[in-house]
Design goal:
The structure is a single chain. The chain is of the alpha/beta class. The chain is 38% helix and 17% strand. The strands form two sheets. It has a six-stranded mixed beta sheet with strand order 3-2-1-4-6-5, with helices on both faces. The protein has a six-stranded mixed beta sheet with strand order 9-8-7-10-12-11, sandwiched between helices. A hairpin with a 3-residue loop joins β1 and β2. The two termini are 16 Å apart.
């Protein structure tokens, strides 16, 4: 029997709730609660639970599992304490998740609650991809490595792509592009993550809405030494004042930047060019981590909805076998958008982290058939 699973996605200022009762399709009930500074409105949560119908189990997204958690884990007080201890690695996301877990255990004491970590999918990274070339003492003492993020999205997108192209997941080499306010790529070989662009934190990698992505660490040392910038100022600038926003001076929203570029605002045009350059370079890097490159998958808000971004990227990747001619999918539909017979299939897959979390809950509780997405 298919479990009815409450999926909880805590953010820094909201709590997204949905009930998943089937392997595919829309969630039966959905609601987003305000949660300023991660504080959960318990009365509103209880109201949602009262109207959601029977619930068998709960799955909660946790951004950073550190070295502690390499797989989804059933939650108790000790697990929450370990998640709390990782707060320094994801200060905007792990504390709200820990708060949500405590509230859920209190309100649903007889229900199994499973923490699903965004870093877990990337625990399979080979040492060559996961290890930084830093003093070995740092690596050992503080468990510093490339953890990767958006794992729930990358896992779902790669498995959905295999379904859409009609190939066994175990024989497919895929580059998945999760492009939203946060953005990352993953090289997925046979359903296993072998490389990704985000690292110890979600700051590494691609240009994002307000995050810088990768920058020369020497630049940060220079800013500390010569400009007198402390850790707080650097963190604020790199997390909230960089990316598309910092480049364009207009917005971190791709739609607003594209509109400004159409009106010949030079910095907006530059922002699109830098974004596309980094994205294409990242896709190339992910492709060479695969045994074979079979599919390029776009997901996330920008990846799903911005045909112009997809077209600009694919036009530059002909060297990798990516076709430049694409057919836009119908709105709201997962689809292969490349011509039949293309060396590399190009797909649009709608992000469904809720389905991936539900799948993980079923797996942890021993009720997930191997074929469920």
């Amino acid at each position: 029997m298919m479990l009815s699973i409450l999926v909880v996605n805590p953010g820094s200022s909201s709590l997204k709730l949905s009930v998943v009762t089937a392997a595919e399709g829309k969630a039966a009930h959905e609601r987003e609660l305000e949660a300023p500074d991660g504080r959960v409105d318990e009365a509103a949560l209880r109201g949602f639970l009262d109207g959601a119908g029977p619930i068998d189990a709960v799955g909660v997204r946790v951004v950073h599992g550190g070295a502690e958690f390499s797989t989804s884990t059933r939650v108790d007080a000790a697990v929450i304490a370990r998640i709390d201890a990782l707060a320094g690695l994801a200060p905007l996301h792990n504390p709200p998740a820990a708060t949500a877990l405590r509230v859920l255990l209190r309100h649903l004491p007889r229900h199994p609650v499973v923490a699903c970590f965004d870093t877990a999918f990337h625990a399979s990274l080979p040492a060559a991809a996961a290890t930084y070339a830093i003093p070995w003492e740092w690596t050992e003492r503080w468990a510093i490595r490339r953890y990767g993020f958006h794992g729930l999205s990358h896992a779902y997108a790669s498995r959905r792509a295999a379904e859409l192209v009609g190939r066994p997941l175990g024989r497919l080499g895929t580059v998945t592009c999760h492009l939203g306010a946060g953005a990352s790529l993953a090289a997925v070989q046979g359903g296993v993550s072998v490389d990704t662009t985000m690292g110890f934190t979600p700051l590494e990698g691609l240009v994002m809405a307000t995050r810088s992505g990768s920058v020369d660490p020497g630049l940060l040392l220079w800013l500390q030494r010569e400009a007198g910038m402390g850790p707080g100022a650097l963190e604020r600038a790199l997390e909230r004042e960089s990316g598309l926003l910092g480049l364009s001076g207009v917005s971190g929203d791709m739609r607003a930047v594209a509109a400004a570029a159409e009106h010949h605002q030079g910095r907006a045009r530059l922002a699109l060019d830098v974004y596309g350059h980094r994205l294409c370079a990242g896709i190339g890097a992910m492709a060479v981590s695969l045994h074979r490159f079979d599919a390029l998958v776009f997901t996330g808000g920008v990846g799903e909805h911005d045909a112009a971004v997809r077209a600009r990227v694919c036009a530059r990747l002909g060297l990798l076998g990516v076709p430049a001619t694409l057919d836009d999918p119908e709105a709201g539909r997962d689809a292969v958008i490349s011509p039949q017979g293309a060396a590399v299939a190009v797909l649009v897959v709608h992000a469904r982290e809720d389905l991936e979390i539900a799948r993980e809950v079923r797996r942890v509780l021993g009720s997930a058939p191997p074929s469920t997405p």
